[in-house]
Amino acid sequence: MVMAHANPLGQFLRARRAQVNPADSGLISGGDRRVPGLRREEVAVLAGVSVDYYARLEQGRERNPSAQILDAIARVFRLDADARGHLYRLAGLNPAVSPAASADYVHPTLLTLMNGFPQAAAYVFGPAFDVLAANPLGAALLAPFGPRPSMMRVVFTDPQATTFFGDWPAMADAIVDALRLNAGLFPADPDILTVLEDLADTPEFTRRWTRQGVGALPRTDKTFHHPQAGRIDLTYQTFDVRDAPGQQLQVGTAEPGSRSEQALTYLAAVHTTP
């Protein structure tokens, strides 16, 4: 089971320690290194703590590190802002955010905003990346996966996904890292817990989840191979919804005058024809 772990802080520290190149930390990378990354004693020296203390952190015997110690470890691991925040939450120093009162409720104002992008594919995601709402182009683009799909399940269990999404590995990496960020922010969210349970035996998901990557969905270019409209290239921006924590608005736009814009127009016509 993916989430069944009594020491999530230690699990995170071990995974991230293994991803640090010793040479990047000014250490000689030669010698007998049976595992990748930094040794515990090297992390301790670089972070300015005792080897015993750092070992107890990884083993779960020390559960109350200070902010200063976490900052030092974050610097050693070269964590970005999202991963640093996740580290703080695992250590109990950053209170979890309360999710929206109803995970499925999308405020009418947000729906109006989403529908204000008539030439773009726009969606509202919940914390587990279920599509809570979509504008007409967004719904048309994702129509092969049915209404209001769970994007986590689509990416990792739908046989169409690896051909539909042009750079499937990069998309899979990004959505798993974003799910871990949300899991830290909303540790009791039932939709996140359910999707983790559902995907626990999915090798491509489990491999990425075990890697302990953390990060919000980035601004990115995506390519789709749609069964009706062919290739569509879109640039996506993702926006957090401040008055509904856990919900995100994602908007994908095509380059004006491009073949992708024409494909979106065609999809809109096909899916609005009575």
Automatic annotation (TrEMBL):
Q: Which InterPro entries does the UniProt record give?
A: Cro/C1-type_HTH (IPR001387), Lambda_DNA-bd_dom_sf (IPR010982), MLTR_LBD (IPR041413)
| Pfam families named in the record | HTH_31, MLTR_LBD
Q: Which residue numbers delimit the HTH cro/C1-type domain?
A: 37-84
- Under which name does UniProt file this protein? Transcriptional regulator
